[in-house]
Design a protein that fits this description.
By secondary structure, the protein is of the alpha/beta class. It has helices at 11-22, 79-84, 86-106, 143-163, 187-197, 216-227, 245-256, 280-286, 294-306, and strands spanning 2-6, 26-31, 50-54, 69-72, 110-116, 167-172, 175-176, 201-204, 210-212, 214-215, 235-237, 242-244, 262-265. The strands form four sheets. Strands 3-2-1-4-5-6-11 form a seven-stranded parallel β-sheet, with helices on both faces. The structure holds nicotinamide-adenine-dinucleotide and uridine-5'-diphosphate (UDP).
Length: 313
């Protein structure tokens, strides 16, 4: 099969390409390097069956040949990134998703959207099930990301309903692992790099807000299973193990043997208070659940960060 993966040079996209190539598929990666890195694709360039096209998907796609599956992961994902690129984020979620859906339609291909738990906003229902409509501030700083993804979901459902396309929507919860950028501001690279350097660990707010972290290989497996399923409505993919950010900081300190102190910084506006996926649907429909424990995943991530070459500049 020929897969088009938009956002291939990103953290999750690069792992997804690797998995698809390992299964023997042909993969064309698309990315404009807005938040991704060429380094993430280094290992793939030698692989038979891999091609890469540098392209901004908010512009119409070039001819990339017949495709069997189009997977749309293109979008800034870290709050620091999407706050730096609010217009680009809205455009890639709307125009980018439109171009990828149109490409999939022309080629009678399947289409998968990488959506997000941010569609639930600062949720009033806990844990979050796919039936929850969310509690999103439509004009707050995070709205560029949340509303882009909500629009992308609506557009995907419209293409399915109007044209009978085989579409899937993954609502991805916090995912971590090798190839996250050390400086992208997300909590896993932030706490790990601070702990490893002996710098203060920056907990935002009181640290009582919760998240649930999924290791990237588990997430990728969920995406692949979903793309082959007949489920058209959104499916949560994440690890239901929930913890407060203060507990998470302590866990990272223990795991790295760090003596870093914990310091408190202001809580960013609209930072969701609680987040934990209900994955009953993924278990039932995809036979999927996470297999990698938090500590195993963190150890693999620490190894990756420890092995990063210092930058030449
Ligand atoms: P990432 O920033 O590492 O990867 C996103 C990639 O998309 C980058 O390589 C970037 O350059 C590319 N991109 C952005 N705009 C583009 C454009 N206009 N044209 C072409 N490429 C473009 O982020 P990630 O963590 O790998 O996230 C991947 C996807 O998964 C995103 O769609 C994100 O919203 C979704 N997601 C991720 C998480 C998570 O915890 N990592 C959680 C929920 C949803
Ligand atoms: N966070 C923190 N310190 C940091 C970075 C993030 O306490 O240095 C908190 C942030 O306020 C949020 C949680 O960690 O409550 C997860 O943040 P992240 O940016 O990783 O992703 P989000 O789930 O908010 O999209």
């Amino acid at each position: 099969m020929h897969y088009l993966v938009a956002g291939a040079a990103g953290f999750i996209g690069s792992h997804l390409c690797e998995r698809l190539l390992a299964e023997g598929h042909r993969v064309t990666g698309i990315d404009n390097y807005l938040t991704g890195k060429a380094d993430n694709l280094e290992a793939l360039h030698g692989s038979e069956g891999f091609a890469f096209v540098e392209h901004d998907v908010t512009r119409p796609l070039p001819d990339l040949g017949a495709a069997d599956v189009v997977m749309n992961l293109a979008s800034p994902a870290s709050p620091r990134d999407y706050l730096a690129y609010p217009v680009e984020t809205l455009r890639v979620g709307s125009e980018g998703t439109l171009h990828l859906l149109e490409y999939a339609r022309r080629h009678h291909a399947r289409f998968l959207l990488a959506s997000t738990s941010e569609c639930y906003g600062d949720p009033l229902e806990h844990p979050q099930r796919e039936t929850y409509w969310g509690h999103v501030n439509p004009v707050g700083p995070r709205s560029c990301y949340d509303e882009a993804k909500r629009y992308a979901e609506a557009l995907t459902m419209a293409f399915h309903r109007a044209y009978g396309m085989r579409t899937n929507i993954a609502r991805i919860f916090n995912t971590f692992g090798p190839r996250m950028k050390l400086d992208d501001g997300r909590v896993v690279p932030a706490f790990l790099s601070q702990a490893l350097r002996g710098e203060p660990i920056t907990v935002f707010g009181t640290g009582e807000q919760t998240r649930s972290f999924c290791y990237v290989s588990d997430l990728v497996d969920g995406l692949v299973r979903l793309s082959r399923s007949e489920e058209r409505m959104p499916v949560n993919l994440g690890n239901p193990l929930e913890m407060t950010m203060l507990e998470f900081a302590e866990r990272i300190k223990a795991l790295t043997g760090s003596t870093s102190e914990i310091v408190y910084h202001p809580l960013p506006e609209d930072d969701p208070q609680r987040r934990r996926p209900d994955i009953t649907k993924a278990r039932e429909v995809l036979g999927w659940e996470p297999l990698v424990s938090l500590d195993q995943g963190l150890r693999l991530t620490v190894e990756y960060f420890a092995g990063l070459k210092p930058r030449a500049d």
